[in-house]
Design goal:
- The chain is of the alpha/beta class.
- Helix 6 packs parallel to helix 8.
- The chain is globular.
- The two termini are 33 Å apart.
């Protein structure tokens, strides 16, 4: 009997060691591009930095937004690891849940990746900077060290990137989200899948290159995981519907502990983003979350079953 118990214990320890993710990253930089549809990646004429992250990391062009394929709904799902039915944000511009959240933390908000980092990594520096100020209502600002909005981005399209560069140099944050609104703005004003849309995407790619270079200059790059993704895509001059042009978005992950040159074949949905970040940092996910890490993207581990 004792031998059987010992064998069972050893098997459990072995299983845990096989499944454990070993990303070994000290920093995660989430680069969010509002309105960036996956359909655009094969067509884009000038996105060398995004393509380099794809080539040197793992990616899928089939990550799905939750419905409706609108902004606040999907930014909330991205940061809090759960679908609309759980967190309760139901409109493109939601600032508070229209449906009472299924669970709330001590800040009276559905737990976000920032919330659980503050609880489990209280000394970690975190930031969230954005062009669309609606995001600040969705991320539990009380749990974040630095929250700011680039309010003049329409006149000064590199304002957000300068803010990110300054913050990275000054604080070397454990987690920073940088969220552009320019692509979505162009989609509404001119149209998705138009020359202006691709020109704007190329501009954002150059700014992503600036942030990557800053990470290298600060000695952070080798200890960082970079995630580039979106809240939703678009069709014509709108989004919010059920077409794949609106619902399928890229998910690119590259950096310390991430596989190289891999096309992710697992299904990925919006709320898996927060779960993946939590796994990189070794955080325990709240029971109320429904997202799962994209395990197959991590190097040196066997794929977990979803």
């Amino acid at each position: 009997m004792k031998n059987m118990k010992l064998i069972t214990l050893l098997a459990l320890v072995l299983a845990m060691s096989v499944c454990k993710v070993s990303a070994a990253a000290k920093h995660v930089i989430l680069l969010g591009i509002d309105g960036w549809g996956a359909y655009s990646v094969p067509k884009a004429h000038d996105i060398p930095n995004i393509r380099s992250l794809m080539d040197n990391g793992a990616y899928t062009l089939k990550k799905r937004s939750v419905l409706k394929s609108e902004s606040a709904i999907n930014w909330a799902s991205m940061f809090n690891g759960a679908p609309t039915e759980m967190h309760g944000y139901t409109n493109w511009g939601s600032r508070v849940p229209e449906i009472p959240s299924a669970f709330v933390n001590d800040h009276n908000i559905y737990p976000t990746i920032y919330s659980i980092m503050r609880e489990q990594m209280p000394a970690a520096e975190t930031g969230c900077i954005m062009e669309w100020d609606g995001i600040k209502y969705l991320v539990d600002s009380l749990a974040i060290d630095y929250v700011d909005v680039a309010r003049d981005y329409e006149k000064d399209p590199e304002q957000l990137t300068r803010m990110a560069v300054s913050y990275i140099k000054d604080k070397k944050p454990a987690f920073l989200a940088v969220c552009w609104d320019q692509i979505d703005h162009t989609g509404h004003a001119v149209g998705h899948d138009t020359p202006a849309y691709y020109d704007n995407l190329a501009d954002i790619d150059r700014q992503i290159g600036t942030i990557i270079q800053t990470l290298k200059d600060c000695g952070m790059y080798d200890d960082t995981v970079i995630i580039v993704t979106s809240d939703h895509g678009g069709i014509g001059r709108s989004h919010g519907g059920q077409t794949l042009m609106e619902m399928e978005v890229p998910f690119v992950i590259c950096g310390s502990g991430i596989r190289h040159g891999m096309v992710i074949t697992d299904t990925v949905i919006q709320y898996d983003t927060a779960a993946t970040i939590a796994e990189i940092f070794g955080l325990q996910r709240p029971q109320c979350w429904r997202g799962l890490p994209v395990y197959s993207a991590f190097a040196g581990t066997k794929d977990k079953k979803r």
